[in-house]
Task: inverse folding
């Protein structure tokens, strides 16, 4: 007897949603992606893509083509230097067996979307209510940190909470070949290479939510930091700066409910200090798609929850801890010795 094609509704066409769509299509599912934005973004800052995420894409693709292209288009970050705010060295991270690749969000999304046939990615289309998706066997909520689906399924108690930090990020013209992160009391500043012959930068500052500010405020905040930081801040062009208050998810009791699975930031938004959020969204999506191709939906969702919840909730806690250590004001000499030693043995 011929079996009918199974159908997935994917709410949110960001990193997790596009990865899930591609992986499910490859295993024969019908897929519809509902994305509220009118198109894929054309500008954005760099994301560090760790080897585990590339491996997950390779496994999903079978041929490793997209991982190779991410590596080719991006910049391999083989070394990174940790500095104090005054430019003295805390430690160097090098000799990693495999290093992350730095690639801009638009370039990554384009690669993730490139195999999706026309008509399947519905732009400018907010995700319908789950109750309106009766025709679908599974619903994947990949609608990001402010997930409406998560709110509806789990209620306001599981809305992300402010981490105590805000981030600014952007890019300036010109190539840098080195990556550094500088730590000072209540703030950090990172400078990395990225694709497109540009230099990527990010700043995180301990501050209550709702504070605004642009390049002028950042120049003031980082006045007195070492010259490389001030040089990047001096070169910021108008309109090339993004500002976000940073939030993290409280631990959800489950990543699945009924026929709905949450992936990526909808399930486990985390502070960006370990650079893992997008990577974990990719791994969630490929894990879920593989399980859905092997098992009935309800079993696949339970297995997905078991495979992903504990690990990603641990990363939320670890990212928070790193943010605190990096922006500490007290015991910094001890911190720097410990971190310097850890970096040497990494
Ligand atoms: C400062 C900063 C630096 C970061 N650096 C890194 C890094 O180096 N490496 C890394 O791995 N991660 C990094 N991250 C984290 C990463 O950006 C996120 O974890 C990742 O984007 C999550 O992917 P996602 O698919 O869950 O959500 P998103 O990529 O946010 O996608 C969600 C999508 O859903 C859509 N959407 C939302 N609501 C609806 C709706 N109602 N209907 C339809 N569509 C909807 C949105 O338009 C969006 O396209 C960083 C984050 C920040 C803030």
Result:
């Amino acid at each position: 007897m011929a079996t009918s094609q199974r159908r997935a509704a994917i709410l949110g066409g960001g990193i997790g949603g596009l990865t899930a769509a591609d992986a499910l299509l490859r295993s024969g599912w019908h897929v519809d992606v509902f994305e509220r934005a009118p198109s894929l973004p054309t500008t954005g800052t760099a994301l560090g893509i760790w080897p585990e995420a590339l491996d997950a894409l390779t496994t999903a693709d079978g041929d490793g083509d997209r991982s190779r292209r991410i590596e080719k288009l991006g910049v391999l970050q083989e070394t990174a230097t940790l500095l104090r705010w005054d430019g003295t060295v805390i430690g160097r991270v090098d000799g990693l067996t495999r290093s992350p690749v730095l690639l801009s969000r638009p370039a990554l999304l384009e690669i993730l979307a490139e195999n999706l046939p026309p008509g399947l990615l519905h732009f400018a289309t907010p995700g319908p209510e789950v109750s309106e998706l009766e025709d679908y066997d599974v619903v994947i909520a990949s609608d990001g940190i402010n997930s409406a689906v998560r709110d509806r399924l789990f209620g306001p108690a599981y809305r992300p909470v402010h981490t105590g930090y805000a981030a600014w990020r952007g890019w300036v013209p010109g190539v840098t070949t080195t990556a550094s992160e500088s730590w000072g009391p209540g703030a950090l500043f990172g400078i990395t290479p990225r694709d497109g012959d540009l230099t990527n930068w990010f700043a995180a500052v301990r501050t209550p939510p709702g504070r605004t500010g642009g390049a002028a405020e950042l120049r003031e905040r980082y006045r007195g930091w070492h010259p490389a930081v001030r040089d990047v801040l001096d070169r910021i062009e108008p309109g090339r700066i993004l500002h976000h208050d940073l939030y993290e998810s409280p631990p959800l009791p489950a990543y699945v409910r009924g026929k709905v699975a949450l992936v990526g930031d909808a399930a486990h938004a985390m502070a960006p200090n370990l650079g893992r959020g997008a990577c974990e969204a990719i791994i969630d999506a490929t894990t879920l798609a593989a399980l859905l191709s092997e098992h009935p939906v309800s079993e696949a969702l339970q297995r997905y929850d078991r495979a992903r919840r504990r690990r990603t909730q641990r990363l939320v806690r670890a990212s928070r801890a790193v943010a605190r250590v990096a922006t500490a004001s007290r015991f910094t000499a001890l911190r720097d010795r410990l971190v310097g030693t850890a970096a040497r043995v990494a």
About this structure: The chain has a mean pLDDT of 92. The first strand starts at residue 7 and ends at 11. Residues 7-75+103-161+248-325 form a domain with the FAD/NAD(P)-binding domain fold (CATH 3.50.50.60).
